[in-house]
Amino acid sequence: MVSTPVFYIKCSNPVNSSLYVDTAPCLNINASSLVQQKTYSYVKVGDMEVGDLNEGCSAEWVALALLNYSKGYNTSYEFIHSALTYGFELRGDWPYDEEICKHKWRKYHTCYPHTIPVYDSGGIQTSLNVL
Predict the structure, then answer these.
(1) Which DSSP string do the residues of 7-30 spell out, in sequence order?
(2) In the record, what terms sit under GO molecular function (predicted)?
(3) Which of 22, 56, 79, 131 is 20 to 30 A distant from 63 in Cα terms?
(4) Strand pairing report for 105-107 and 125-129
């Protein structure tokens, strides 16, 4: 299982998007007075970019959930809510991660060298060390 972000999204209008899961079966955030506008609540599972937000929607908060994809992914809010009850895994880089890249820089699963090839005006290559 892997910790996955779950974004809670509030929208001023109903949204029909495959990215959003309706929370209506479990959460009801209807306006409590005539002055407040009715809002619609959704969740989006996984990473989110600005372009993933529909017009009139805002990301209210984010949680991490342990989602077991080996059992299949169910897009119901009940499934997501159940996953949230298990908490999440908080992980840093483990010691063996350093061995994978042989002391190079690492981001996610990609290794980067500490040196950058540089060419002088005569076209001769040297290396620039980056610390």
Answers:
(1) EEEEESS----TT-EE-TTT----
(2) kinase activity
(3) 56
(4) unpaired
Q: Which two tokens stand for residue 84?
A: 């949230």
pLDDT digits (tens, 9 = 90+) for 9-56: 999 999 998 889 998 766 655 545 555 678 899 999 988 888 889 999
Q: Which residue has the tokens 């342990």?
A: 66
Residues 6+ apart with CB under 8 A from 63: 5, 6, 8, 84, 88
- Rounded Cα distance, 22 and 1, in Å: 23
Q: How far apart are CA 75 and CA 66, in angstroms?
A: 14
